[in-house]
Predict the structure of IRG-type G domain-containing protein.
Amino acid sequence: EEETRRTRRAKEEAERKAREAAELARRVQAEREELERQLRRGIQPVVRPTLEEIRLAKAKVQYDDAMFHFAVAGIAGSGKSSLINALCGMNNSDPNAAPTGVNETTMEISRYVDTTHPEQFAWYDVPGSGTLGTPDWQYFNSQGLYVFDCVLVLVNNRFTVTDQAILRNCHHFQIPTFIVRSKSDQHILNLMMDMGFDSDLEDTDSREQFFNIARERYISGTRQSVKDNLATANLPDQRVYIVSKKTLFSAAQNRQPMGLIDEVELLTDLYSVAYRSGRFA
């Protein structure tokens, strides 16, 4: 009789495991079919990583629970490496600086220690979208952006599909994001040239007038463009920080640079997010 009971229990346990396996397979198939439906409809799905994927992603970037980890992402050529150097208090010529160039120089996630906060902050230069052969909607997961404590998204005048996917995924995972437009000094100069400015012909007063008008147009145009792009993508409204690497570098060195736009506010808000995390005593 005891043998019969053991046999019955073993059979019931086997049947239970078979039902659980069948239910798991059903859920996986349903999720796969839903992802395929979303892709056919042009919707970029949010895919939650497994615990093992999270563990491996943290190991890859040398994640340290005692530090705060900032990732800088965006399209190739948006100025990610120069921005990281400025935020870390380094010139592009510094031997420890992130490499910069006309073409995308970042093909693997690279880690940099903030020289002004070496025990607290780590910065990561993420390969630009469009350089790795990865579909836009998979960029967030393929780069392991879900393990970072904060993500800066560098944008140009119009959001890419990848920009939208990063912001949407960060919102889903409750990761703080900062939208940043860099190279502002160059963009303002380009606007001045479009307005008819000629450095060989204009005097100082004329140059200042051209600069002030172009600067205001650039700032207001950028803010409105980001607002419109967020609305079009059905993303929550948020501020865009308009900066130039030279001015940001000086601000990170606690200097008082000329031509400030949002550099000081960006640094202040980044540090505030880090310190509010409760990671530092």
